Automatic annotation (TrEMBL):
Alphabetically ordered keywords of this record: Cell membrane, Hydrolase, Membrane, Transmembrane, Transmembrane helix
Gene3D superfamilies: Phosphatidic acid phosphatase type 2/haloperoxidase
Phosphatidic acid phosphatase type 2/haloperoxidase domain: residues covered: 87-197
Protein name in the entry: Phosphatidic acid phosphatase type 2/haloperoxidase domain-containing protein
Claim: Transmembrane helix is one of the keywords in the record: yes
InterPro entries: PAP2/HPO, PAP2/HPO_sf
Subcellular location: Cell membrane
Domain of life: Bacteria
Pfam families, per database record: PAP2
Length: 201
C-alpha cells in the first residue's frame, strides 16, 4: 500500500511534482507551478499585516463590492430621477453584470480552490460566496464599474477606480483570493467596463 502524499489542489491541465513546505504552502515544479507557488506564498505573507482596524476596513470594502452593494448603489442612482442618475445606474448595472458573467464563467471552467481549502492551516476572514477562487468576482465587478464610469464628471471616475483598488486589496487581505485571482479579475473588469461604455453611451 502506497504512502499518502501531500498534494495540493491543482488547476486543470497543470502537471508537475507537488510538495507542501513547513508553512503549509504548496510548492510546485514547472513554470506555471512556480507562479502558483509564488502566488500562494505572497498571499500568506500578506496576512502578517492583519489588524483589527484594517480588518474592519477590508470587510467594509468587500461588502460594498458584492452584488448587494452594487445593486444598492445602482438603485440609489436611479432614485435621483435625473438623466445623469439614470445614466450612472445603467453603466453601473452593465459593468457589474458583464464582469460577473465573465468571472463566473472562468471560475467554473478553471475551478481553482479557495485559499482556505488549498493551504493547510490557512484562515480566511471572510465567508466565501462560492467554492472557486480564480478570478475574483468582487474585483471584476469593481473594475467593470470603475472603467464604465471613467469618463464621468465630478471626479466620479477616479473615486470609482480608488474604490475598485481597495476592493481588490481587501479580497487578498481577507484571504478570500490569491493576488493572481485579483489581477485577473481586474483585467476582466477592464474589458467588461469598456463593453458597458459601448452599450450605455
Amino acid at each position: 500500500m502506497s504512502e499518502p502524499s501531500d498534494r495540493g489542489p491543482e488547476l486543470p491541465g497543470v502537471e508537475g511534482a507537488i510538495a507542501v513546505d513547513a508553512d503549509g504552502v504548496v510548492v510546485r515544479e514547472g513554470r506555471l507551478r512556480r507562479i502558483l507557488s509564488f502566488d500562494e506564498a505572497l498571499l500568506v505573507s500578506v496576512q502578517r499585516f492583519r489588524g483589527p482596524c484594517r480588518t474592519v476596513i477590508a470587510r467594509a470594502l468587500t461588502a460594498v463590492g458584492d452584488g448587494k452593494g452594487w445593486t444598492a448603489i445602482g438603485v440609489a442612482c436611479f432614485a435621483t430621477s435625473t438623466p445623469r442618475g439614470r445614466h450612472l445606474g445603467l453603466r453601473i448595472g452593465a459593468g457589474t453584470i458583464l464582469a460577473t458573467l465573465l468571472s463566473q464563467a472562468l471560475k467554473r471552467s478553471l475551478t481553482r480552490a479557495r485559499p482556505d481549502s488549498a493551504i493547510a492551516g490557512f484562515e480566511a476572514l471572510a465567508a466565501n460566496p462560492d467554492r472557486f477562487s480564480f478570478p475574483s468576482g468582487h474585483t471584476s465587478a469593481a473594475f467593470g464599474v470603475a472603467v464604465a464610469l471613467a469618463d464621468e464628471p465630478y471626479g466620479i471616475g477616479p473615486c470609482a477606480l480608488l474604490l475598485a483598488v481597495g476592493i481588490g486589496l481587501s479580497r487578498v487581505y481577507l484571504g478570500a483570493h490569491y493576488p493572481l485571482d485579483v489581477g485577473a479579475g481586474a483585467l476582466l473588469g477592464v474589458f467588461a467596463g469598456l463593453a458597458a461604455r459601448l452599450l450605455v453611451s
